[in-house]
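Thread: Modeling a multi-component assembly for a lab meeting

Hi all, long-time lurker, first post. My supervisor asked me to bring a structural picture of a complex we are working on to next week's group meeting, and I have zero experience with this. I have the sequence lines for every component (1278 residues in total). Could someone generate the structure of the whole assembly? Inputs are pasted exactly as I received them:
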Amino acid sequence: MSDRRQFRDLVDPAVAHGTISSLDLDPESETVSLSDARGRVLAERVDADLDVPGFDRASMDGYAVRGRDTFGADEADPIELDLVGAVHAGTEPDVVVGEGEAAEISTGAVMPEGADAVVMVERTAEVYSDDGNESDEPPTAVVVRTAVAPGDNVMLAGTDIAAGARALGPGTRLTAREIGLLSALGVDEVPVRGKPTVGIVSTGDELVRPGEDLHSERGQIYDVNSYTIAAGVEEAGGEARLYPHAGDDYGEMERLLVEAAEECDLVLSSGSTSASAVDVIYKVIEERGDLLLHGVAVKPGKPMLIGEVGESAYVGLPGYPVSALTIFRTFVAPAVRAAAGLPEPRTATVRGKMAVRERYGEGRLRLMPVGLVTDADGETLVYPVDKGSGATTSLVEADGVVAVDPDTEYLGEGEAVDVKLFSPDVRPPTLFAVGEDDPALSRLLDRLENPRFLPVGSREGLRRLAGGVPDVAVVAGPVERDVDTVDLGGWTREWGLVVPADNPEGVADLADLVDRDLAFVNRGRDAGVRASLDAALDDLADARGVSQHDLADAIRSYEIGSKGFESPARAVARGNADAGLGLRATAERLGLGFVPLGTESVRVRANPKRTAKPGIEELKDRLVAADDVFASLGGYESD
Amino acid sequence: MSDRRQFRDLVDPAVAHGTISSLDLDPESETVSLSDARGRVLAERVDADLDVPGFDRASMDGYAVRGRDTFGADEADPIELDLVGAVHAGTEPDVVVGEGEAAEISTGAVMPEGADAVVMVERTAEVYSDDGNESDEPPTAVVVRTAVAPGDNVMLAGTDIAAGARALGPGTRLTAREIGLLSALGVDEVPVRGKPTVGIVSTGDELVRPGEDLHSERGQIYDVNSYTIAAGVEEAGGEARLYPHAGDDYGEMERLLVEAAEECDLVLSSGSTSASAVDVIYKVIEERGDLLLHGVAVKPGKPMLIGEVGESAYVGLPGYPVSALTIFRTFVAPAVRAAAGLPEPRTATVRGKMAVRERYGEGRLRLMPVGLVTDADGETLVYPVDKGSGATTSLVEADGVVAVDPDTEYLGEGEAVDVKLFSPDVRPPTLFAVGEDDPALSRLLDRLENPRFLPVGSREGLRRLAGGVPDVAVVAGPVERDVDTVDLGGWTREWGLVVPADNPEGVADLADLVDRDLAFVNRGRDAGVRASLDAALDDLADARGVSQHDLADAIRSYEIGSKGFESPARAVARGNADAGLGLRATAERLGLGFVPLGTESVRVRANPKRTAKPGIEELKDRLVAADDVFASLGGYESD
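Re: Modeling a multi-component assembly
Sure thing. I ran the full set together rather than chain by chain. Output:
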């Protein structure tokens, strides 16, 4: 462990940007069919190779005539022309229109020889041989009540697009309308810029692909970065290729990186947080390629590697998911987009105001992951999330990144900042809720559009609501903290001890938990059910004339609280515990036994400044109409 | 033609919107692999089915210890713990940490039994048996210079995500970060909303698919609407299916519509402008389905049909490409998006100011196709395009649609309007140029990002520039009109008569054109070369003491001007003409002969209010550096 490489002489982030954009990621152009061309970028100019229309075309239903023949005709003084035939769209004319003659013509049909104008049908009347009465015989002549000049209601060949004209330039992004123009030109194959191929090599012996079996006892975790970055690559217009995960062993890493470099325009490595894996990659790049840059004065992302392996570019991303996505978004996605010929989407950056004051001052560029929330006026507020915890959940809390200058000591509350969104499709949540995790709440959230909920527990939720960032806190059980909030409604839920089905230990009440040596799984202090349990224990201590502390001490593992609301019940289900703190609804869902200890109230409490926000109003409406939710959960009642 | 159906009792557009949204387009949900899930919309809530991490996890490189053992340790008074082994990420610990002991641990590794905290490596030193000097022997103990509390630098199982927690709600659009969360949960298959399948039946006997042979003499044209609307369907999140084009015959149309209805959630028909085709569809829908609505008080789109065929919804679009896209964008795309579970993209609507005054007052909702141009300050200006001409080129000039209320008599210059863009990816051009088509200009435009050029000819170009909408006009030849412009630069080009290779008729000069009966193809009056030819003819008339009119009359087809700058030369190449008006560069490109008649100047003239606009500055720079372009074109010289 003593020879671990230290990162010295960190380079400026601008140099890192420059180095990445100097790398050649440009794919070769390719030809795609018109049906597959949407969203692609033209590699070359497309000129018209034919006239559109390719013939003189009637642009009205009516009669093809010689314009000169109609001069002077009007309603009062119509003229009559002999009918010599008809021309329909998609057929070759088999008539010639001579002086004093007309041919019926439909919109889009070829003008017959001799005719140079069309009289619209509304200004004509058919004439039948039997004195104007309709019969089975076709009309023999047409009465024209208006004059037309040569060229009227005719679109000359090439008027729309002339052969030889520049139709679409290189670099044009092909949307519906450009596809339309190309089809008008008869183009069914289009030269487009290739998509840069980006290979993603995940590192770390502990990584397992989603869908495979996970051995937690060996410290395995699912590979998050490969899939996140692959999606980011595709959002930026690249084509992602995942390479089977590499261990931290030199030979394996070398083989994989070289293989990926041969097949891709850019190779990214990502996944491991361990310095030893970074070391191995460093050595492979030094020996099999060209290491251009090692270490950037940016947080996160300091140990970024930039180099080349064979013909391919290489960038090493940090290991924590939000950090990897942050560095990808900031340094790599622009290069992928440029290689794909795509502009930065207009929605990729939003402006907002800091919801809180944020101190800084580390002398390095900080790429601060932030979440977005809107205030009652719809203005976007920005708050920092994930201060390097490495939590994957912050992936979904973080909407984007704010770049904080090295010289900035703090960002003031209300200060305007630009947020680079992680994806152009990211939208601020319509409702930002925090607090107690609860099955009824989950179903209510399902009825809202794009809500955000962080299950931080009642106590922490209320603390955050007091901090002013979230819209609402969901608070269960007895509450100590006094926070100014607006109550939106709530429900009650039955809590107690979840025990194995049929309650084999015959647990009957709280006294059993204290007096018998049961393997117990508790919840953490932020959970509402824990506050209810503590209060019940207080009552029992009072009744027995002892301290609550003495009773708690008598319960095995009382101080170790699990985070998830289902965790104690799941431990019971796995056979790892005799009893767990939880809800009747959870016990029923998992087919377990339940010993009721009480009923607690769950309240949805709103930030008083946000009550006019549509997302909060919507939640309030949903709360009123949630009887079906409460009825479906054992031990729940509306309030 | 007399029994053509009239459209009476036009319904309000709001009713049409309501009818379409009442149709059931919702596809069934489906399951896709995680790699294919990007951009899709979750059909159901996804709850965490496991704890993340699944074990107590070291979050630092260092030593796993019992926190209690380190109490009181600091730099001045370190403590020493016996090293009992090591735990690496991805392996199962094979040590137990007892009192006074420590195990080396790497980030991400499973905490060994007995240990409850990690001391970071930077606050430790290894101790070797041979009095602290490094040797080949492994270290036997570690010196700890800091105290850690139980839980320090350890992430407890389930801290990140607890099993049972709500991870992502139904309706969530899956971007990179949601993909990351799903992979953390080990999810490799995702329940997503299906894409509504939209069948497109093109109608009209005259339509030919791009890539197939076109018989212009029969009035065939390429099918534009099918491909345009298919791309629009995909942009809205649907899946488009093209059905082989249907003739206007009842049996064929019935077979196709019924087949499409069986296979799709929605069927659109589009393509024909002929009332007879609309009639046939009308009859099929009435007999094989349910016609819900026929005729809407909107321009364009009045004859819109809305109905059902079997289980499928049906909407009939108008025939002109811009009209079809307009109706699709306004009425159909929102329904496709809703069925796909996608929100309207934020970029789908932009606000701008009318660049010109536009009169109206027809008492129907007008969906006015508009183009966008930015002024010098970057503000978006909006101008009407395509007043029902049916030109496919206006597809690329029109960026979107402004809905003009039936009561509005006019939109004033400078009035704010909302533009629904045809595609969310549509961007206003960086430069809007009009005027003379020219091969050097085409190459210059290739060097700009997203320019728009309309080849309307010099005279019309200057007229439009005077109207204040475009940024620049490209003007060739002698100019009568006096317009206040800023000259950005230009070039000269040699013009004359394009003749067959080797000049079989031995055409020598303009006099030959006048005096001999040559089959001649002229350009239109808006073309700069035509102005040069007229001027040369003036000179010849002066020299001969006759009127220019007499000379022009002597030239066959002098008055019929073709639109494309290459059209006369192409007529010569096809053997349809003895001589055509054109450029030396064109003759050389097509391998034809050339009789020079003069040199004319081409000037790029800018709107004086826009000279500070970046796109104009860029064009000016490109003009200065265009010597390679002029050198590559015969008869061109920089100016």
